[in-house]
Design brief:
The protein is mainly α. Helices cover 79% and strands 0% of the residues.
């Protein structure tokens, strides 16, 4: 089957390039908001684990590591997000 909607492919490619080329620097507000949301999600995951594995199967150290990994991942992703976006833009432009 051939490409039935070439205009849609062009519009989608332009949409992707436009959104990925938005490489403005992250503000302190955005970084803090990302970390607060990650903290809320980490507490939710920790609370769910504590309820699900009550009794001898519950490990406090594992619960803390789950929360820590969530927060650390959010921090790392906010640091490298702009570099990933730039890489994807070059990939999309190269494949066009």
């Amino acid at each position: 089957m051939g490409n039935r909607m070439p205009g849609l492919e062009k519009n989608m490619r332009e949409f992707i390039v436009e959104n990925l080329t938005n490489t403005e620097a992250l503000s302190v507000t955005v970084i803090l908001m990302n970390n607060v949301i990650a903290l809320i999600v980490a507490f939710f995951i920790m609370f769910t684990y504590k309820i699900s594995y009550a009794g001898p199967a519950y490990s406090r150290k594992f619960n803390i590591s789950i929360g820590s990994i969530t927060i650390i991942t959010a921090m790392i992703m906010s640091i490298i997000s702009n570099n990933i976006a730039l890489s994807l833009v070059w990939l999309v432009l190269f494949l066009s």
